[in-house]
Amino acid sequence: MEQVDERFDIGARLHAMRMAAGLSQRQLAEKAGVPHAQISNVETNKISPSVSTLRRILNGLGVGMGDFFEPERSPSKGPFFSADELLDLTSRISGQLPGGANGTLVLRQVGDARSHNLQILHEVYEPSADTGETFLQHTSSEGGYVVEGELEITIGNDVRILKAGEAYLFDSRLPHRFRNISGERAIVISACSPPYL
């Protein structure tokens, strides 16, 4: 796995992208469907956004997580990919939770998802990792297979804890959330079409 640049400033990067798009904080908040204060708090690093919140904000800018975190990096063309060629989408999002718990969530993408209209992810959920209280919801279909550990998945009103060897497949227009409520790491291989993150 790649070394993470601990100096990556999410707030400064969001501010620069918003300014380049010619949007005020209020305009971006309206486009993203988030409270105005949330844009300000992320830009000033008062809060570290969850995956779901950051994705909503970036959707307002019309960019993906890969473009946000690794704008200079072009996905490898493949057809084969070494571990260091996977595109890091999330590890720079702080995983620190109240009480000092580490809730790091690392999503790494295989190749150029947009050109193949398919996003394949290697997902690592440390204990307490969570995609966020704001549920994800997008026009796609997605599925995955739990390789290690266990993961709580909420899809609409259905909640289930999947263990290694179990899988899921659903319409992503249904509100959904992924959480590791166990004390052990969970690893998932997933796919989404069309790509979302």
UniProtKB/TrEMBL annotation:
Keywords recorded for this protein, A-Z: DNA-binding
DNA-binding keyword on record: yes
Domain HTH cro/C1-type positions: 14-68
Entries under Pfam families matching the protein: Cupin_2, HTH_3
Record SUPFAM superfamilies: lambda repressor-like DNA-binding domains, RmlC-like cupins
CDD domains the record matches: cupin_XRE_C, HTH_XRE
PANTHER family for this protein: HTH-TYPE TRANSCRIPTIONAL REGULATOR, HTH-TYPE TRANSCRIPTIONAL REGULATOR PUUR
Name under which the protein is recorded: Cupin domain-containing protein
Protein source organism: Neorhizobium turbinariae
